[in-house]
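Homework help thread (please don't just give me the answer)

Our assignment gives two proteins as sequence + structure token strings and asks us to describe the second one. The first is just a warm-up. Here they are:
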Amino acid sequence: MTGLKRSFVWLTLYLALILVLGQSDYAGRPIINFASYFYLAVMVAVPVTLFFPSVSKAYIPLLFWGGVYMVILKTVDRSVSTTYIDLPIIVLEFVLLEVGVWFAQQLATEIRYAESLMDTLAFGAFPNRVRDIEVESQRIKVELTRSRRYQRPLSLLMIEVEPDIEQTASAIARTIQHDLMNRFSFARVGQVIDDLIRQTDLFLKDRRGRYVILCSETRLPEVELFANRISEAVKEKTGLRMFWGYASFPDEALTFEDLMQKARERLITHQSYQDTVFKNALKDVSKL
């Protein structure tokens, strides 16, 4: 966690420096009068780089936001927001923007590293054979190709677990603790599912915290029964409510992306239905 703390401190000091330089006056005039679009670029570039790690790899953010600044510099009349049009001030703005993006990129890297450690700890406590969906892209292609070539059924089951309501409603100060608990719950659910699936099933997880099971030689009625059996086991062993969606190849979709989309639509429909049933049950209880 030392690297995470260091990156957070450096990013905080950087933002404070920008504020101090822009607001400090000398003899009634600002020491450095940055252009307004520079502040806007920093306000957008730093959080985007921080919260979208998929586009925060290598030097892509530095090149992208440097290019954005140069485009703004060429298209926006700088004299509208500042009297400083000197080259040194422009260079300073460019450098400070790139430094801010770099600090945000380092913090994003440290956050991803901390999350990976928590995932390793959670799945170490509840081991199962789930694999990352992006890592197994080649295996997915093989399964679809085999089913297409030999005209065999294939179904996809997408599973999402409802988070603990008490945890999500607790104080912000305990967010990290709750995040860790949710990861342990996710890993525990994975262990329960792993005990029920076949060796031939491909057990995956995506970035949004959902499990995806690619079930070979399985048609829609069978995968629906399978989903119900998993839901009952998860409820019995963890106390968590499970939602699911499914899709069949080739009856409903011909590509893995289409299978995922169809399963996602059914998952959302299942969530809405279960929430409606739950609310109606609460109303019935309140009338007693």
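The one we have to describe:
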Amino acid sequence: MDNPPIVSSFPTTAPEINAIVQELQSGIQAVLGEQLVGLYLEGSLAAGGFDAASDIDFLAVMEEDITPDLFASLQVMHDRTKALDNPWAIQLEGMYSSRADLRRYDPAHAAFPNIERGVGERLKMVHYDETGVIHRWILCQHGVVLLGPPPQTLIDPVTPDDLRQAVRAILPGWAEGLLADPSYLQMHDYQCYVVLSVCRILYTVRHGEVVPKVTSANWAKKSLPERWKPLIERAWIGRMASKGQAPLEDIQSTLDFLRYALEQPDQGK
């Protein structure tokens, strides 16, 4: 359960990770030029808990909203980067935001260019829900500056209650969607992701902060009813070797875990 992270800051001790981040930075600078305000790492690479199952999360901030020409050029750059002979080339996951839109979460201005990890993933426009609040908190608390000003100068403060409100808003729709259509849980990697994400959500509601998966999973094993401990332990192991179909027992247990989370005080309020 307590597998140590392999890296938790940048530059890292892993040359291949350093190389792909440097390739990303060079590519973004070449495309955006003077439009680029700053480039930051977030997620587990910045906050800790990064391991072989993690992705490399980044945020690029631009002076203005992206234009169709810049979007197309970034698309070409990301396609080229994913094709590199580096195992981390397909593990980049990030977004592009204008300086104005990054300042605070606004559901009316929450569509951003996004690239996700995985073979075949391409740059696309994504509408962010309250997860944007969580990204801003992580960036301000743990963001690694590759270039540009400190992220705290670009983002209004995010309070613990802001975080609690965000996860309370996210959980019901996400959980109820999976309960209505559990087919997504047949993928073992996603089933493990759901279990560990529920642990993080419950931790954030209780403590008003976001912590690495390993921290929230260990907390959940100790603080939640004993019945969930085996499911959480299997999810942690499964995330490291989770290709294929999830066990039927774990699919049902994950659905029960989602129901449990929805029944907790303050959820959905």
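TA reply:
I won't write it for you, but here's a hint about the kind of observation we're looking for: The domain at 15-153 is CATH 3.30.460.10 (Beta Polymerase; domain 2).
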